[in-house]
Design a protein that fits this description.
With 109 residues, this protein is of the alpha+beta class. The protein has one domain. Helices cover 17% and strands 17% of the residues. It contains two helices and six strands; from the N terminus they run E-E-E-E-E-E-H-H. The strands form two sheets. It has a three-stranded antiparallel beta sheet with strand order 2-1-6, covered by helices on one side. The chain has a three-stranded antiparallel beta sheet with strand order 3-4-5, with no helix packed on it. A hairpin with a 5-residue loop joins strand 1 and strand 2. Helix 1 crosses helix 2. It is elongated, with a radius of gyration of 15 Å. The protein starts with 11 loop residues before the first strand and ends with a helix. It binds zinc ion (ZN). The site of zinc ion has 8 residues, from loops. Zinc ion binds next to loops.
Length: 109
């Protein structure tokens, strides 16, 4: 029996520093965000990320497509911060102390 090969349906991530959503559309489509902290590569062949570490040691991106379900990088706080960076949630409405702390460390507060 052949091993099951996991192929990403889409290969997207979001930079937590600038909010850019990156999508690598094919194997050699290497895409940088505008702030240069994060890149996506590999298209539907593999998932590769280039990133820097945030002050708390976590990576500068969240994956937006993950067929394996829970991604360790997807914390509730990071999802909240990503919504602010995308302009979906006004900064003033963020009352989660951890999210405010992260936004402050990123220079948004
Ligand atoms: Zn960026």
């Amino acid at each position: 029996m052949d091993p099951i090969r996991c192929v990403p349906i889409r290969n997207r991530c979001q930079c937590l520093l600038c909010g850019d959503v990156l999508e690598s559309r094919h194997r050699h489509d290497f895409v940088w965000c505008r702030c240069g902290a994060t890149a996506a590569d590999g298209g539907r062949d593999y998932v590769r990320r280039v990133f820097c570490n945030l002050p708390d040691g976590r990576p500068s991106f969240v994956d937006l497509d993950n067929a394996d379900g829970e991604n360790p990088y997807h914390s509730a706080v990071e999802r909240l911060v990503a919504r602010v960076l995308r302009g979906e949630l006004p900064l003033a409405q963020v009352d989660d102390p951890d999210a405010r702390d992260m936004l402050a460390r990123l220079g948004f507060l």
